[in-house]
């Protein structure tokens, strides 16, 4: 580094107009003109416009190639036409590294114009595109907003095991593994552990991977995704869980609105307004869809994907909301730990949250009474002895509690208007893909 020249971050440049500074980054794009060139420098968040000119720059433009890592010495000059209000007049450059070969994918255009297969096959490179990486800055902002809400409401962040002895959700969609000669599984959710920790901290949350061995090959399914889970104790009604999730999403949007404007503008995203999220019972929703669209109800236990979209259209027109809570799902559809409605045992005190016609959250109140939990497990042909460590919390006393799990990638994809959840996943894992 040259003496007395300070190396600065990109977000500090506006405070150094008229000064000579140093800044590091990667050469994103070089546009050669007659006698000068525009050089776009990709820093950790911004792409900064630099100007090379034979009169000022003491190096040859051919000395730098795209995707080189460099340390640039430059003068910060005010420029009204720049989106930042300044540009850098390049004086000198120290090349720190150069690529071994040219990228097989053009990543420095406005979009990466290729198939989703190429986009994902060359993910380490395609993520360098300005818009591609903006997706995951927004995802960061969503998580920051979620965490801010949890902290404000006195939740404790926990980190639970991902190698478990039984599946929380049951069924066949569970990855098994040989664990030193014993049977073990990858966690389908942190369900048992977050319930356990309600007895310790009362309110807990976790943002971590979960695994589903579903053989779905659809635009909405992944075999590994990021679950946003929380659980809260001493609830008087499962509506408290929905109210907390409403706050959590409001917090995420507030965080994006304040600290991620640049990425929102880059991706042309307008954040939904949320004051209150409407609610509708599952049975009423099915009947409303059938009546409105003259559709036959084929499945009384769950929604078809098309029904979710139709319900969104109805509720958006009726309430203006892009979100809707669907409550009181049938008991047959929900896991063994879901609390049944005391007034109607055929339905549970549970809900899904739909966002623009796609389920992004499942939640509800849990059974906290030991005898009630044992009875329900036996009714389902389950062996309570296999869940001894989980049932310990019921045996030795638990408050009324409940919680939810939200799919981070699905939520991000819906917010950004993507047709496939893989666009909102850093390195997707599905039935076809375990690399890169």
The helix-strand sequence is: EEEEEHHHEEEEHEEHHEHHEEEEEHHEH
Stretches where pLDDT is under 50 for at least 5 consecutive residues are: none
Query: What kind of sheet is the major sheet?
Result: 8 strands, mixed
Number of helices: 11
Q: Overall 3D geometry?
A: elongated
Strand order of the largest sheet: 6-10-11-18-17-16-13-12
Structure description:
With 436 residues, this protein is of the alpha+beta class. The protein is elongated, with a radius of gyration of 26 Å. A hairpin with a 4-residue loop joins strand 2 and strand 3 (47-53). It has an 8-stranded mixed sheet, sandwiched between helices. Helix 9 (370-379) packs antiparallel against helix 10 (388-395). It has helices at 116-121, 123-126, 130-152, 191-201, 239-259, 261-266, 282-293, 305-319, 370-379, 388-395, 408-416, and strands at 20-32, 36-42, 47-53, 69-78, 86-97, 156-157, 163-164, 176-179, 182-186, 203-211, 224-233, 279-281, 323-327, 340-341, 344-348, 350-355, 358-365, 401-407.
Summarize the entry for a quick read.
This protein has helices at 116-121, 123-126, 130-152, 191-201, 239-259, 261-266, 282-293, 305-319, 370-379, 388-395, 408-416, and strands at 20-32, 36-42, 47-53, 69-78, 86-97, 156-157, 163-164, 176-179, 182-186, 203-211, 224-233, 279-281, 323-327, 340-341, 344-348, 350-355, 358-365, 401-407. The two termini are 36 Å apart.
Question: What's the structural blueprint in terms of helices and strands?
Answer:
Elements: E1 20-32, E2 36-42, E3 47-53, E4 69-78, E5 86-97, H1 116-121, H2 123-126, H3 130-152, E6 156-157, E7 163-164, E8 176-179, E9 182-186, H4 191-201, E10 203-211, E11 224-233, H5 239-259, H6 261-266, E12 279-281, H7 282-293, H8 305-319, E13 323-327, E14 340-341, E15 344-348, E16 350-355, E17 358-365, H9 370-379, H10 388-395, E18 401-407, H11 408-416
Parallel strand pairs: 3-5, 6-10, 12-13
Antiparallel strand pairs: 1-2, 1-4, 2-3, 4-5, 7-9, 8-9, 10-11, 11-18, 13-16, 14-15, 16-17, 17-18
């Amino acid at each position: 580094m040259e003496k007395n020249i300070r190396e600065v971050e990109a977000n500090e440049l506006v405070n150094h107009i008229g000064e000579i500074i140093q800044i590091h980054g990667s050469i994103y794009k070089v546009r050669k003109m007659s006698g000068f060139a525009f050089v776009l420098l990709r820093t950790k968040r911004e792409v900064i416009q630099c100007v090379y000119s034979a009169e000022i720059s003491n190096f040859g433009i051919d000395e730098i190639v795209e995707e080189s890592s460099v340390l640039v010495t430059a003068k910060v000059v005010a420029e009204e036409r720049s989106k930042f209000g300044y540009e850098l007049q390049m004086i000198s450059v120290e090349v720190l590294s150069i690529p071994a070969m040219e990228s097989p994918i053009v990543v420095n255009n406005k979009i990466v114009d290729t198939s989703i297969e190429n986009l994902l096959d060359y993910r380490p490179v395609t993520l360098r595109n300005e818009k591609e990486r903006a997706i995951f800055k927004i995802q960061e902002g969503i998580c920051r907003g979620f965490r801010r809400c949890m902290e404000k409401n006195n939740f404790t962040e926990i980190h639970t095991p991902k190698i478990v002895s039984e599946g929380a959700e049951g069924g066949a969609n569970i990855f098994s593994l040989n664990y030193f000669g014993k049977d073990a599984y990858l966690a389908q959710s942190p369900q048992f552990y977050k319930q356990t920790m309600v007895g310790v901290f009362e309110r807990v949350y976790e943002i971590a991977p979960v695994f589903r061995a579903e053989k779905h090959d659809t635009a909405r399914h992944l075999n590994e995704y990021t679950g946003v889970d929380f659980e809260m104790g001493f609830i008087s009604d499962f509506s408290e869980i929905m109210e907390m999730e409403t706050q959590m999403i409001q917090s995420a949007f507030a965080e994006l609105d304040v600290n991620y404007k640049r990425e929102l503008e880059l991706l042309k995203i307008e954040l939904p307004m949320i004051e209150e999220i409407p609610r509708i019972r599952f049975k009423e929703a099915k009947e409303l869809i059938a009546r409105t669209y003259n559709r036959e109800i084929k499945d009384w236990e769950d929604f078809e994907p098309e029904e979710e979209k139709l319900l969104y259209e109805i509720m958006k027109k009726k309430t203006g909301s892009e979100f809707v809570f669907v409550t009181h799902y049938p008991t047959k559809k929900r896991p063994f730990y879901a609390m049944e409605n005391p007034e109607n045992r055929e339905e549970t005190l549970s809900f899904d949250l739909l966002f623009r016609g796609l389920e992004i959250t499942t939640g509800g109140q849990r059974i906290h009474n030991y005898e009630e939990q044992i009875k329900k497990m036996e009714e389902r042909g389950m062996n309570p002895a296999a869940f001894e460590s989980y049932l310990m919390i019921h045996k030795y006393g638990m408050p009324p509690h409940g919680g939810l799990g939200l799919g981070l990638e699905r939520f991000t994809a819906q917010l950004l208007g993507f047709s496939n959840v893989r666009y909102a996943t850093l390195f997707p894992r599905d039935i076809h893909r375990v690399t890169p």
